[in-house]
């Protein structure tokens, strides 16, 4: 496999011109070419029928120059070390773009959680923390939710860590249930942050939400809250999808009843065929996931998985702009093609950062013992997203570069500055690990 065929290689291929523009030191380029720490663990789980299954998992800490590493944990049957490494690299850039005092990390377990019972899932979640507990901690590496993990899973993981530590350590994991020290606003934060970036961008273009149509790929945590809040702000959500299919209504979809339906049946597809008045009244149609990506809309929101738009389907994209809620949904080759065609991409490392921003707020609240109201969290999130998105948008305009290049310059620039501030001899005797 060549470098460009790995997700990390593809992610890294965007960096060379940005390093050149930043006049980045060779030390920085070398240090950021690979993760500082990467571990693979095996997690034995006693299944309900008495058999034993051993799952593979990873935790990768990409870079910790700006602070303890931070990033979610993904449970997915396609996850591998390359994915987790690329995701940890994007976390390092993202935390820096948002000015958070964190480096980047990510975790993953190769499993289809839908095939496990609730107790099996709890045993797996606890087993993963037992396997990685000595490399995580509030000042070291702080996990959080990602695809197929949620506050319930974070609650089990926090409890397992506390039991090993023999004390309560709420700041070790964010995205916890409120009762265990979770923050108000974390569940909706990724969607809310993405909407804030879209609103700011639309305002700068002189556009109003009421005139804009939106198609959303994905209907998980991030996508649902984005779609719900965007509809409240006046955007018309014309299409939504999950891994099994997509639905379309030119008159606009209401994400709330659709979310309830998905919760009850585990898929969107049934919405098309169901007998309920909602389907008849709203004229919901079925379409393929590929066709959703080719809809002629103002904004195509990518909120599912990485590598969704590549060289094979990029020329089918007809949206005026793309909002990346997923991490890495557009490959570097497709990105270059979109730029050539003048399609604006609101990049992942800025657009999906609302989640980690509120995770940072949760960590601060856990460490100070001072808990904030939902309104206070929301106001701080909006203020942070506006401030850092405005910097990126201004930089893109000044330097006449894409928003992705501007965001990377902002993120990498801050990491490079912190590396220089740590001194030349940090690596003289090797990294202390
Ligand atoms: N949850 C969070 O706080 C954050 C999540 N993200 C990213 O957002 C994306 C979604 O994450 P979550 O909403 O948390 O996950 P989730 O597990 O709640 O939902 C994932 C959704 O994607 C759908 N999906 C998977 N493959 C698909 C396909 N090919 N076409 C259409 N839909 C597909 C699934 O059916 C599900 O609805 C991921 O890339 C994640 O890394 C980014 C920042 C923070
Ligand atoms: O909330 C966090 O710490 C990390 C969320 C995450 O995994 C992401 O932004 O991709």
Question: What secondary-structure arrangement, pairings included, does this model have?
Answer:
Elements: H1 7-13, H2 15-22, H3 26-31, E1 37-46, E2 52-63, E3 69-76, H4 81-97, E4 103-110, H5 118-132, E5 141-145, H6 151-165, H7 186-204, E6 213-217, H8 221-233, E7 236-242, E8 245-248, H9 255-265, H10 270-273, H11 277-282, E9 285-287, H12 289-293, E10 299-302, E11 321-324, H13 332-340, E12 344-346, H14 348-351, H15 354-368, H16 374-399, H17 403-422
Parallel strand pairs: 3-4, 3-5, 6-7, 6-10, 10-11, 11-12
Antiparallel strand pairs: 1-2, 2-4, 7-8, 8-9
The structure holds 1,4-dihydronicotinamide adenine dinucleotide and 2-oxoglutaric acid.
């Amino acid at each position: 496999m060549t470098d460009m065929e790995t997700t990390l290689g593809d992610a890294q291929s965007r960096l060379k011109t940005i390093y050149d523009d930043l006049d980045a030191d060779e030390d920085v380029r070398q240090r950021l070419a690979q993760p500082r720490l990467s571990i693979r663990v095996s997690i034995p789980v006693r299944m309900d029928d008495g058999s034993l299954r051993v799952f593979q998992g990873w935790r990768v800490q990409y870079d910790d120059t700006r602070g303890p590493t931070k990033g979610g944990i993904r449970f997915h049957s396609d996850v591998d070390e390359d994915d987790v490494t690329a995701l940890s690299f994007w976390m390092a850039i993202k935390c820096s773009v948002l000015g958070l005092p964190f480096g980047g990390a990510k975790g993953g377990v190769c499993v289809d959680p839908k095939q496990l019972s609730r107790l099996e899932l709890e045993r797996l979640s606890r087993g993963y923390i037992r396997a990685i507990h000595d490399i995580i901690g509030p000042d070291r590496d702080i996990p959080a939710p990602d695809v197929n993990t949620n506050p319930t899973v974070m609650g089990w993981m926090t409890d397992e860590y506390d039991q090993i530590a023999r004390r309560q350590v709420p700041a070790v994991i964010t995205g916890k249930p409120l009762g265990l020290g979770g923050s108000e606003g974390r569940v909706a934060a990724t969607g809310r942050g993405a909407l804030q970036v879209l609103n700011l961008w639309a305002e700068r273009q002189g556009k109003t939400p009421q005139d804009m149509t939106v198609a959303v790929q994905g209907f998980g945590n991030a996508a649902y809250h984005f779609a719900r809040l965007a509809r409240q702000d006046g955007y018309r959500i014309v299409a939504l999808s999950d891994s099994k299919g997509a639905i379309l209504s030119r008159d606009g979809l209401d994400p709330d009843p659709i979310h309830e339906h998905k919760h009850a049946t585990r898929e969107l597809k049934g919405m098309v065929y169901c007998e309920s008045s909602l389907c008849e009244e709203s004229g919901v149609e079925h379409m393929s996931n590929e066709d959703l990506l080719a809809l002629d809309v103002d904004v195509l929101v990518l909120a599912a998985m990485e590598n969704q738009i590549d060289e094979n389907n990029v020329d089918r994209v007809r949206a005026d702009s793309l909002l990346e809620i997923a991490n890495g949904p557009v490959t570097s080759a497709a990105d270059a093609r979109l730029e050539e065609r003048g399609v604006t991409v609101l990049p992942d490392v800025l657009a999906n950062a609302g989640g980690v921003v509120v995770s940072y707020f949760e960590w601060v609240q856990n460490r100070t013992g001072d808990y904030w109201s939902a309104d206070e969290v929301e106001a701080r999130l909006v203020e942070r997203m506006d401030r850092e998105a405005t910097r990126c948008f201004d930089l893109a305009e000044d330097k006449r570069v894409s928003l992705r290049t501007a965001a990377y310059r902002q993120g990498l620039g801050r990491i490079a500055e912190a590396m220089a501030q740590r001194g030349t001899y940090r690596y003289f005797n090797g990294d202390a690990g």
